[in-house]
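Proteins fold reproducibly. Take a tokenised chain:

. . .
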Amino acid sequence: MIAVITRDPRFVDRRLQRDFDTTREQLIEIVKAAVAARGQSTDDSPRSAAAYYAWAAATTRLRQVFRQKGWDKGDENGIETVVCHERKTQIAVLSTDRWTADERRPPRNRTIKGPASEKIIDLNEQFEFFSPEEMGQIASSPYALWYLCIYDNGSKVRAEISKPIEFLGGYITKYSERIFLLQEGDWEKVTIAPFGDDTAASDDLEINVRRK
């Protein structure tokens, strides 16, 4: 199965609004939180600090955005998500490699994942063949998992929200759908501005576009 890719901003927003009740701009705010948090890591920080800071900040921001829309906080099998029971959908944050928002290859997670991720991704693949009602009879937790994939190497930032369906050796290898949020060159065009009044982000969170 070849992934369906949506990259035109006009169709991206339409797709996000229809199935996630969100917009590209709102998801980019989550990416900004990850970039800002990663930048807090210094040479004295533990080796894994930058990745953890970014993931924690993005997950927090993800929940702040989506819980205002009526989604719930989820952590099934240790995977931190937001969940919409009506849509049978859950979203988690994932740090991915340089193929993020690049149609030539699917992005891979930068750190190896365990059996919990494999189980949920296997359910995603079944979603491609069964209706939500049928999935309710097949699985105890018939929720599709989408990952907000973020690539940040210190100078370039790209992002997409995608639905994985194949998992091999601890890494995601295939997606059924990919929705590009920040493509090559888009990060430089993003206006770095304070979060809006309708958000719950910390007042002391400063967003910086970093350059090597």
Observations:
- The chain has five helices and seven strands.
- Residues 4-189 form one domain.
